[in-house]
Design goal:
about 160 residues, alpha/beta, 5 helices, about 15% strand, globular, binds 4-nitrophenyl phosphate
Length: about 160
């Protein structure tokens, strides 16, 4: 069976999309679905390439027994051909992804959506950027993502 490939995307790839990736991996492990998926995350920006996720996010996630192991990378044209689903954290990421996709001729390139399309508990239509805020912002991002990431899994199951 062909694996389902999912790429989570934010701006820096050090806060929101690594958290979404780790939450999704954790959820797939619990549901014994790990082998059915290819999961990754990327940023639209290039500032943090090669870096670990923000330590504030790593610590907040670890309190929920979620390990964030990713290293930041920037999205590339190849990702639009290799991933079935590309999930943006906010409107700005979403618009940037659509602009990038418009430059690709491949007919079967990725389905691009906002992760918050799959929310059920939280009202936010975007995952807020916690980078310039306090520690509580990181917990809020995790709360939001636990809701919408599981909603995404249900939508494709
Ligand atoms: P992320 O957060 O997009 O959730 O990874 C950010 C990380 C870094 C910056 C902005 C947002 N920055 O401006 O460096």
């Amino acid at each position: 069976m062909k694996k389902i490939s999912v790429l989570f995307v934010c701006l820096g790839n050090i806060c929101r999309s690594p958290a979404a990736e780790a939450i999704f991996i954790n959820l797939l492990e619990k549901k014994k679905l790990t082998n059915d998926f290819i999961i990754d995350s990327a940023g639209t920006g290039s500032w943090h390439i090669g870096k670990k996720a923000d330590s504030r996010m790593i610590i907040a996630a670890a309190r929920r027994d979620i390990n964030i192991l990713s290293r930041a990378r920037q999205i590339s044209i190849k990702d639009f051909e290799e991933f079935q689903y590309i999930l943006a954290m906010d409107d700005s990421n979403y618009r940037n992804l659509l602009d990038l996709k418009n430059n690709i001729s491949s007919a079967d390139s990725a389905s691009i959506k906002k992760i918050q399309n799959f929310r059920s508990v939280f009202y936010e239509e975007e995952v807020p950027d916690p980078y310039f805020g306090g520690d509580e912002g990181f917990d809020h991002v995790l709360d939001i993502l636990e809701d919408s990431v599981s909603g995404f899994l249900e939508s494709i199951s």
